[in-house]
Write a structure and sequence with these properties.
Elements lengths: L2 H12 L3 E6 L27 E5 H17 L7 E5 L6 H10 L3 E4 L6 H10 L4 E4 L4 H9 L6 E4 L9 E2 H5 L16 E6 L9 E5 H15 L6 E4 L6 H13 L2 E5 L4 H10 L4 E4 L1 H13 L14 E4 L6 H10 L4 E8 L4 E6 L13 E2 L4 E5 L12 E6 L6 E2 L3 H7 E2 L2 E10 L5 E6 L4 E3 L2 E3 L1 H8 L5 E11 L3 E10 L7 H7 L11 E4 L12 H9 L2 H8 L1
Parallel strand pairs: 1-11, 3-4, 3-5, 5-6, 6-7, 10-11, 10-12, 12-13, 13-14, 26-27
Antiparallel strand pairs: 1-2, 8-9, 9-19, 14-15, 15-16, 17-18, 18-21, 20-21, 21-22, 23-24, 25-26
Length: 545
C-alpha cells in the first residue's frame, strides 16, 4: 500500500466529513466569542478567511486535479516538485497531488533565505516550484538568474508574471485519479535536515517510509475517527506532517492553526473540540506561563475533550512536564523522538502509560529497533553514554547526491543519529546531547542538555541554551545563554548561586542574558550562538591565559 490510497479510501468512505480546518487568528479575534462568528470576514494581514474547511472528498479531488495538471505539463515519474508555502488548506492537497503524479514532493523551510532556497532547489534537482505571496521577494532574484526550474506555480491572487495561478489552473483539470502506478519502493519525497549543524542535506525517502510513519503514529497515539488533531508546527517538516498521518489513517479531522499565542491555542482546542495537540517546548512554556500568571483563564475554554498533549522535535525538560501535569492532571502526556532521516517522530517512543518516566524519550517505537553504541560501533553497557542508532522501515534511502555523508550515518541498515544517549535498567533511553554539541573541558565530557534541564527549573528562567566556548587552558568552557521570563529580573549572582547544586565542572563559566534563538521546529540554533559568542574568543583566551 502507498499513502495516497489512504486518502482515496477516506474520500470514498467518509467523503462528506471534514478532513481539514484552517484557522487564521488575528489580534482582533481575541475580542470575539468564537471564530465561527467570523467565517466570512477577511483577515487584513493574511488575505484569507479566519476559518476554512475541506471535506475528504474535496481533499482527494484537489489532489487529483493537481496531479493531472502536472502530468498535462509533461511532468513524469521521478520529477521533483518543491512546496514553499506557509501552513494553509492548500498545502496537503498539493503534496498528495505531487505524490499521485509519481513525482517527488520537496517541502521547503519557509524561513529559508533566498540563497538557502536557491541552494536547496539546486541540491534536490527541483523541476517545479509552488510558492505563496510571502516568498515573492525571495524568489524574484532566483528567477532572474539562469536556473533549472521548468515551471513556477503561485498560490494566491496577483502573482508575479513569471508564475501561473496554481489553484485556477487546477479548476480546468480532471478530478479523476491520474493513471500512475505507485509502489512502496518508489521514491516519494525529499526533506531537508534542519540545518542545526550547517547547510541542509537533502534526505530521500520512499513511499514505504511514508506509509510506515502512518502506522507508527496511529499505533502510538491511538487516533480514532472522533479524534481531532490540532497541528501548529510547519507542514514542511516531517514532525508535523507525520503526526497528522495518524489522522489520515484514522480518517479523523485535523485543524491547522496559524498562530502560537496561548489564547489562540486554547480557543482552537475549545472551538474545534480538539482532543490531541502537539506542542513544541517554547509554546508549552508560553502556555503554562500565561496560565500561571493569570493572563488566561482556563474556565473560558472547553477543554474536557482534550485527552493527549505530546511534545517532540527537541529534548523536553522534565520540569516542564511536571508543571503541565499539575495544571492538567487528567491529560495523557507523550513524547516521541525522531529525525527527518527516520521520517520524523516515532522511532523512539515514551508511551502515555510511562509518565512516571518523564525525562526519558522512551523505548523503540512501533516497527523500530534501537541500540546505543560506542565510537567503534560496539554495544555499550547499561548506563554508559554512547551514540543512539535506529533501524526500521522509515530510515531514509540516502542523502540525495551525497554518498559520503550517507556512508557516515547508514551502516548495515542502521541509522547513526549523532545523538548521545544512555539506557536505564528498564530499557528506557535518555538523551544526553548531540554528539557535536558535547563540550570537552579539561578532559571531561559535559553534556549541555543536562545543564539546560537543570537551569530550566529556575522560576525566573523561560529558556536556556548551553554551548562551549574556546579556552586556551581547558580547551572549552561552558556558557549559558539565558532568556528570562517576561516582567522578571535576574542577576548573574542568582544564577551562580542556583548552580551550586551542580558539580563544579558542570557549572556555566559564562552567563549571557538574551533571547534563545530556535528554528521553526523548536530546536535551539546553536551554530548561530557559537558564531556569535565563540568568534575571536580563542585569541582572547590565549592572550589572557
Amino acid at each position: 500500500m502507498v499513502i495516497t490510497e489512504l486518502l482515496e479510501k477516506n474520500a470514498r468512505l467518509y467523503g462528506g466529513e471534514t478532513a481539514l480546518v484552517e484557522i487564521n487568528p488575528s489580534e482582533e479575534m481575541d475580542k470575539a466569542t468564537t471564530w465561527r462568528e467570523f467565517n466570512l470576514i477577511e483577515s487584513t494581514n493574511l488575505g484569507t478567511p479566519y476559518r476554512r474547511e475541506m471535506s475528504w472528498l474535496d481533499f482527494d479531488r484537489r489532489a487529483n486535479r493537481f496531479a493531472n495538471l502536472l502530468l498535462s505539463r509533461g511532468l513524469k515519474k521521478g520529477d521533483k516538485v518543491a512546496i514553499l508555502l506557509m501552513n494553509c488548506l492548500e498545502w496537503l492537497p498539493l503534496y498528495f497531488g505531487i505524490l499521485k503524479a509519481g513525482c517527488l514532493a520537496v517541502p521547503m523551510n519557509f524561513r529559508y533565505s533566498g540563497d538557502e532556497i536557491e541552494y536547496c532547489l539546486d541540491l534536490a534537482d527541483v523541476d517545479v516550484l509552488i510558492f505563496g505571496p510571502e516568498f515573492i521577494t525571495r524568489i524574484d532574484p532566483i528567477v532572474k538568474k539562469d536556473n533549472r526550474l521548468k515551471m513556477l506555480f503561485y498560490v494566491g491572487d496577483d502573482g508575479p508574471d513569471y508564475s501561473e495561478n496554481c489553484i485556477k489552473l487546477m479548476g480546468y483539470c480532471s478530478s479523476n485519479p491520474p493513471p500512475v502506478e505507485l509502489t512502496e519502493t518508489d521514491d516519494a519525497a525529499i526533506y531537508f535536515s534542519s540545518g542545526t549543524t550547517g547547510f541542509p542535506k537533502a534526505i530521500l525517502h520512499k513511499h514505504l517510509s511514508l506509509i510506515s510513519s502512518c502506522q507508527t503514529e496511529q499505533n502510538h497515539h491511538n487516533q480514532q475517527r472522533d479524534d481531532v488533531f490540532l497541528c501548529i508546527p510547519p507542514l514542511y517538516h516531517t514532525g508535523a506532517k507525520m503526526h497528522w498521518f495518524g489522522s489520515l489513517l484514522s480518517a479523523s479531522k485535523a485543524v491547522l492553526l496559524r498562530g502560537v499565542k496561548p489564547e489562540w491555542i486554547l480557543r482552537a482546542v475549545s472551538d474545534e473540540k480538539c482532543s490531541i495537540v502537539w506542542l513544541l517546548v517554547p509554546w508549552a512554556q508560553d502556555l503554562l506561563d500565561a496560565i500561571e500568571s493569570g493572563m488566561v483563564n482556563l474556565n473560558d475554554y472547553r477543554l474536557d475533550q482534550l485527552r493527549l498533549m505530546h511534545i517532540g522535535a527537541q529534548p523536553v525538560p522534565p520540569s516542564l512536564i511536571n508543571r503541565w501535569m499539575k495544571i492538567f492532571p487528567h491529560h495523557q502526556y507523550d513524547t516521541n523522538y525522531g529525525l527527518s532521516e527516520s521520517i520524523g517522530p516515532g522511532c523512539v517512543h515514551l508511551g502515555v502509560e510511562n509518565t512516571h518516566k518523564v525525562g526519558a524519550i522512551g523505548k523503540a517505537g512501533y516497527l523500530w529497533q534501537v541500540d546505543i553504541v560506542d565510537e567503534n560501533g560496539n554495544k555499550t553497557k547499561q548506563g554508559d553514554v554512547g551514540e543512539l542508532i535506529v533501524k526500521g522501515p522509515g530510515v531514509m534511502t540516502c542523502y540525495y547526491k551525497n554518498p559520503e555523508a550517507t556512508a557516515e550515518v547508514l551502516k548495515d541498515g542502521w541509522l547513526y543519529t549523532g545523538d548521545m544517549a544512555k539506557m536505564d535498567e528498564e530499557g528506557f533511553i535518555y538523551l544526553v546531547d548531540r554528539k557535536k554539541d558535547v563540550v570537552i573541558s579539561g578532559g571531561e565530557n559535559i553534556y549541555p542538555v543536562q545543564i539546560e534541564d537543570f537551569l530550566r527549573a529556575h522560576s525566573k528562567i523561560k529558556d536556556v541554551a548551553v554551548i562551549g566556548l574556546p579556552d586556551a587552558r581547558l580547551g572549552e568552557i561552558t556558557a549559558a545563554i539565558i532568556e528570562i521570563k517576561e516582567g522578571m529580573q535576574c542577576s548573574e549572582d542568582e544564577i551562580n548561586e542556583f548552580c551550586t547544586e551542580l558539580p563544579r565542572y558542570k557549572r556555566p563559566k559564562k552567563i549571557f542574558f538574551e533571547k534563545v534563538p530556535r528554528n521553526p521546529t523548536g530546536k535551539i540554533e546553536k551554530p548561530a550562538l557559537r558564531e556569535k559568542y565563540c568568534k575571536g574568543r580563542l585569541v582572547e583566551s590565549q592572550i589572557t591565559g
